[in-house]
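Fold it.
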Amino acid sequence: MISVSIIGAGNVASHLYQAFKMAPDVTVKQWFNRDFSKISSFMNEVNTIDDLNLLEDADVYVIAVSDDAVSNISKQLPFENRLVVHTSGSVGIHDLSSKNRRGVFYPLQSFSKDAELSFENVPICIEVLDKKDIDILKQLAESIGSKWYRINSEQRQTLHLSAVFVNNFTNQLYRIAHEISDSKSIDFDILKPLIMETAQKVQHMSPYMAQTGPAKRNDKKTIRRHLKLLEKEEHKKIYELLTHSIKKTHGR
């Protein structure tokens, strides 16, 4: 049985709590957050605290707070030589205080508080400084059904950057498409099967091979027509930038 204490109450912390709670080989010993109101509703399920000095012995302490707060929180922990990990994609392992054994337990996924999520679909990127700590983090990942990968800080930061492109930027393009379709009273739901097909396609072929559309074909008439239809200058710039990138990639 692995005992875990969670530090933080944001989206990642909340989802990890639910996953750990359901795992037969994990017990959530304590849940800390400075703003107790965010975790008070769980006080009948787990020992909820708002004072770091009340933290008890646990096998792993999971810091799931904003990137800027990771280093400071780790310095404030009232103990030494215990395994402390953070869940950030962009914070280095050495940003954790050296008074404890340091590690990273980074779930590579987009977390929304009200959206259900199965950790079977969440890869966990693991990093440690002490080799003896790798086994417990591997067991922790496997206990919630996740596939794990041993990834160093530089690789993880590059993964996080890549994730911004495939998730955050792509979602912004969805929002722009939603705005464009709304402007002509078109139901955005009509586009959802295309969104699903595009996502499914890259599961079994490379994004390079999956690319279609007027930019790849160098269909100048269609490109000009699209640019004429776009009413916002910002949308035109995005269209032109991505069109140029696709054409360059495919030698057009």
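The chain has nine helices and eight strands.
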